[in-house]
Amino acid sequence: MSAAGVMRDFDRYKGQEEYLYPRQDNRNRGGQKTETCMSVSDVFSDLVQRQREELEERIRTGTSEPSYPLGANSFTEREWTKLIRSVDAVQEKIREAAERERELEKEEEEIEKAESLKNSMIVYDVDGIRCIESVSGICQWFIRFTDKGQYSLVQKIMEEVETGANPTPVFQEDFWNSLF
Q1: What is the DSSP code (8-state) at residue 16?
Q2: How far apart are CA 31 and CA 47, in angstroms?
Q3: 40-61 vs 3-13: helix crossing angle, rounded to 10
Q4: What tens digit of pLDDT does each residue of 42-68 get?
Q5: Which residues of 10-33 are buried (b: 16+ CB within 10 A; e: fewer)?
Q6: Residues facing 33 on adjacent strands
Q7: How far apart are CA 102 and CA 99, in angstroms?
Q8: Are 150 and 180 in contact (CB under 8 A)?
Q9: Mapped to the 3 state alphabet, what secondary structure does 22-59 carry?
Q10: What's the rounded mean pLDDT across residues 108-137?
Q11: What is the dihedral of CA 101, 106, 111, 117, to 10 degrees?
């Protein structure tokens, strides 16, 4: 608790005779030790005195650092640096987790796309080439030919794929777009 907080509480309770906890009284009364209670003002006086002594000791030994108020708190430069480093570390972990999540989502999309392409077939004629999902019959993509040379090229590539000589990615639209 800071000295300012202690003083605020001290002012609030000043003059009240509430008792907080027992304190051993070392005075001997007929051979018996007695217990007395500390009043609130005594407790706060003790707290203020301890805080003052601690501050004096830090000043005397040179271990006191300047403290800068920030909102309801006050930080030394060392404490501030430690806080910022911990915040930076948490933010870096969040960034890494988000990047891993994006990579996993991308991998899942690629797997889904590959699975859907496994159940697809390539159909071509003089008008163009298309990829059709075998189960549903839905056309996934279609490329219209602009000249007869494109049809001949597709025919040649598909013959090579059938013989197993050319393992090209014929189910990918980008592959065909790069040829035309």
Answers
A1: -
A2: 31
A3: 160
A4: 888 888 999 899 888 878 887 777 777
A5: beeeeeeeeeeeeeeeeeeeeeee
A6: 28
A7: 5
A8: yes
A9: EEEEEEEECCEEEEEEEEHHHHHHHHHHHHHHHHHHHH
A10: 82
A11: 160
**Beta strands 19-29 and 128-133: pairing type?**
unpaired
| Predicted pLDDT at 99 | 96
Q: Which residues pair with 76 in a beta bridge?
A: 67
| Tokens found for residue 62 | 């040179």
Query: Could you tell me the two tokens for 84?
Result: 């910022």
Per-residue confidence (pLDDT) for residue 1, from 0 to 100: 52
3-state class (DSSP) for residue 165: coil
Q: Which residues lie closer than 8 Å to 74 by C-beta, 6 or more apart?
A: 2, 67, 68
Give me the residues paired with residue 32 across strands.
Answer: 29
First to last CA, the chain: 76
Tokens standing for residue 25? 């009284």
Residue 131: pLDDT above 60?
Answer: yes
Q: Which residues contact 33 (CB under 8 A, 6 or more apart)?
A: 24, 25, 26
Q: Reduced to 3 states, what is the DSSP secondary structure of residue 70? A: strand
Q: How far apart are CA 54 and CA 48, in angstroms?
A: 10
Return the structure tokens found at 153: 């090229």
Q: Is the pLDDT of residue 92 over 80?
A: yes
* pTM, to two decimals: 0.37
C-beta neighbour count of 131 within 10 angstroms: 22
